[in-house]
Amino acid sequence: MSKTLDVTRQTCGRYVVETCLRPDGAVFLRTPDIFPVNARNWHGPYENMNAAITDFLDRTAIPKITRKKLSSLRDHGYAGDVGGKEMILHLDRWTGATTLSDFELVEESVQT
Prior knowledge:
Elements: E1 7-12, E2 15-21, E3 27-30, E4 43-46, H1 49-60, E5 64-65, H2 67-75, E6 79-82, E7 85-91, E8 98-101, E9 104-105
Parallel strand pairs: 5-9
Antiparallel strand pairs: 1-2, 2-3, 3-4, 6-7, 7-8
């Protein structure tokens, strides 16, 4: 007899995520409503729930860039005005897709 694993749905940052805890303690995480659809696959296994959520938040955080980096992105056509808001072209670390993204300007010494 196979047992169905419980899937928990919650809001995490800007996204809805689903997590699944296996009997051995491993955690898997997915984003059921995100695009592109291939990004909806399960990610993991993670050691615990905290590790899964931390990794997800890190990968989906708004990029932090310096003024120098922004200038370079503008020079190469990877930053510009979109509907009155400046955005950058960014490789999303969760989905693997290149996307337009908001960004946060940081001082040169603060960038991570």
